[in-house]
Amino acid sequence: MSSIVYPEPLEECSLDESRPLKEDVDSNTEVGQEIQDHKSLKQQSWRRRLGSANFLRPLLLTLVILLVSLVAVDEILHPRCPDVRRPMDFSGWICAPNGAIPEVARERGCEFDGLSFHWFPKERFEDEDNLALLREFENDGPWHRYVDKEGKVEIPQGNKVLKAAWLTRREHIIHCKYALRQTHLWVNHTAQ
Known about the structure:
It contains 6 helices and 4 strands, in the order H-H-H-E-E-H-H-E-E-H. By secondary structure, it is mainly alpha-helical. Strands 1-2 form a two-stranded antiparallel sheet. It has a two-stranded antiparallel ribbon with strand order 3-4.
């Protein structure tokens, strides 16, 4: 095995040969002139790319606007959820207005729902799922409703001529929970 002998000691060098060291290049030399020409070509191509980008920018913006417009028109003409666009019909659920005299409301076949403060048709009010929900709501009570904001004048429990009432914060929060459950129950019964 022969060993290679180098006449000079080895030095560390850059592996990027396309970029000579600054001290090795003089603009008057042939390599220096090539580097300057290369820099001006880079600047020109950069300017050319910027010019084409400036040309493409309005074109891309126009395409995006056109695409968004087409999607919007498609959504308007062909809605994905047509039932959401129509209001739900709950007219069969409320059979007497709030504040109706109880005798008149009952003659119309209504029962007062103490959870939602509305008069509902008797057969819907007496639905076993609804009655179970109302019992559960009443068991979370007792509920105190007031005529005034300060809570000094309480509305009697049997009063069914409510147009408005003040509630405690606790009842308000629990009432909302049960009202959502009741609404869900009725929507499911309506869909069947």
